[in-house]
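Researcher: Please predict.
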Amino acid sequence: METAFFKYFPSSLGWPEPYHPVNRKNQELKCLETLAPNVMVMHVKHSHVIPQHFKKAIMNELKNKVVVIYGAGGEIGGAVARAFAREGARLFLTGRRLAPVEAVARDIVSAGGEAEAAQVDALDEQAIDKHLQFVVAKAGCIDISFNAIGNSPTSYLGASLVEMDLKQFIMPITSYIISYFLTARLAARRMLLNKSGVIMTVSAPPARIGTPNGGYGPSQAAKEALTRYLSKELAPQGIRVVCLQPHGMPETETIKEIFESRAATAGVTWEQFTAYLAGMNHPKRFMTLAEMANVAVFVASDKASVLMGTTVNMTMGALDD
């Protein structure tokens, strides 16, 4: 059985006649919101039944690319994993907790993609290295390393910098930068063998604007600086290093936790909080996880070959570079 993936805009248009699934005995249609928004999945027994204009829409931007994602059980990591799978990538998904990573892998496999889940602490150098050895032994190489780990903001939000103790301040800095350094360095060692690869991570606007987020802003600024340092060293060897910088997406648990931590003291509702975030963006709306993942696909693809050593501004105008 073959599997084809198609963009579908909008859902009200449906499949054109005579290709509607109800008119073909050898077709089955599935719409999986868990795969990615605006994506239809059609399972067909014979590829000749696919109309030519739909064949052109089949996604292959990352066909046969071997991808390792850290923090794949989170909203950003999961969205990127599903988008990469849609584009033909072979995925090795990891996370500190196995259950949510397995859930993402199941979604991808059920839609016809390739994904394996593993429990890997992205702060444990030996665990990362062992997993990458497994990936190379099974897939032959590593083409893309994507670090999307997160942590609970409630552990470092609240207190002012003047009142904050060192442990609370340093926690996001050590976790984010150590994880990024370890995963990038260990992936690069494998990529250097083929002189090819893409290393990616995610930053946030507090890296460049003053917000009451303790050590979170400095941690993101450190990731952006490390992106430039890694690129300077690795780009001559054919390895691109790029950081993505989206702006607060209410779909993520991080934004929900930030709201909950401030709602009581600030006296704001969820609607007021999200309206404030949307108001910072030029179109006065949020970026969605699907939009963020689509940009990640482009940056990871060969079409973005000139993007390296940079942070891609995805803040919809909220941050002026």
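Model: Residues 11 and 178 are 43 Å apart (CA to CA).
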